[in-house]
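Tutorial handout. Part one gives the primary structure; part two gives the three-dimensional structure as tokens.
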Amino acid sequence: MGRTARTITGIDQRKFAERATRTADISSPHDKLNKSIIAMLQQDGRMPFAEIAQALDVSEGTIRNRVNGMKQAGMLQIAAIADPVAVEYSTDAMLGLKITPGFTPQQVAERLSALPDVVYILWVSGRFDLLAEVVSDDRDGFLAFMETEVHSRNDIAAVEIMTGLKNFKNQFLLKQNWK
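Part two.
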């Protein structure tokens, strides 16, 4: 009887381990099915799970579980993102920022992140410390932003303004408020 109990326990443990492994894969960014689901949702974030399931030859429940698993793991967020060019901002510029000694890129990024005209900030290596994309409804709004948030602040030592001329591709991930 002791031998039978060990065998049953051994089988249960193996099944439990397999189940745990399968569950962990549901939210893996390296999983082929997850990559396919993400690619389809990037094309249309409102695509029905049934349509995704049919295209990928899996059940609708599998798609629902995968999407929910990726959301819970913090690797997927479905959100509406407005392209600054598509909504016709008249001013779109990338700012190359050098940070004043005594300040950190994080301090400046946190300050700029709170401003609605700033849509993108990246800490970079090389000639600049930060790259920040700024959009404005008009030229006067952009100039006011530059005067109040860049030139009159002591945490920015230098700025290079690169105005957008033509947008060939704009694909970005919304990462704010991810938990």
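Part three, for discussion. The chain has two domains: 2-72, 91-163. The helical segments are 2-25, 32-43, 49-56, 60-72, 105-113, 139-151.
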